[in-house]
Amino acid sequence: MLTKMNSGTQGLALHAARRASWKRQRGISLIGLFLVGLIAVALLALGFKTVPAVVEYIAVERAVQKIKNEGSTVREIQAAFDRHATIDDITSITSRDLDITKEGDRIVISYAYAKKIPVFDNVALVIDFSGTTRDRKQRRDIP
User: Fold this and answer.
1) Among 49, 92, 104, 116, which residue's Cβ finds the most Cβ atoms within 10 Å?
2) SS3 for 128?
3) Euclidean distance between CA atoms 12 and 31, whole angstroms
4) What is the largest CA-CA distance in the chain?
């Protein structure tokens, strides 16, 4: 026997079916996928542009660590840095930019420089690099 539903009951059943359909649909839309991809590509491009600056900073840090014991005068240390800079293709900083001091019986070499990386048109990323051969005080682990 067929029974006829009234229009109010049909509306509730249709609404419940649509709500259940929305709960089952999961994922990202095509526009959302496009936007996520665009953001990922922009971040990758920015990362690729910053890698050479970071590699050069690592080369500067290694050169400074190597030359700290290669000379006893400022000129000798600067000449040693120039040799390492030529070999490692360091162009952001020169030997004259090194701050060479003596603390007690140890020679301390410090440096700081900024690297400007053009992103697009008139937008640039500026990274400040610095380092020293001075011993850093170690934190004591508190139990």
Assistant:
1) 92
2) strand
3) 32
4) 107
What are 36-78's pLDDT values in tens digits?
999 999 999 999 999 999 999 999 999 999 998 888 889 999 9
Q: Which amino acid is at 63?
A: A
Alpha carbons 82 and 91: distance in angstroms, whole number: 10
HEC assignment per residue over 3-55: CCCCHHHHHHHHHHHHHHHHHHCCCCCHHHHHHHHHHHHHHHHHHHHHHHHHH
**Direct distance between the N- and C-terminal alpha carbons of the chain, in angstroms, rounded to an integer:** 79
- Is this prediction's pTM over 0.85? no
Give residues with Cβ within 8 angstroms of 44, minimum separation 6: none
- Which pLDDT does position 141 carry in this prediction? 47
Domain that holds residue 111: 30-132
Give the model's pLDDT for residue 6.
56
pLDDT value of residue 72: 82
Does a structural domain hold residue 4?
A: no
Is 94 a member of any domain?
Answer: yes
State the total domains in the chain. 1
Residue 21 lies in a domain: no
Q: Which residues on neighbouring strands pair with residue 132, listed in sequence order? A: 110
67 within a domain of the structure (yes/no): yes
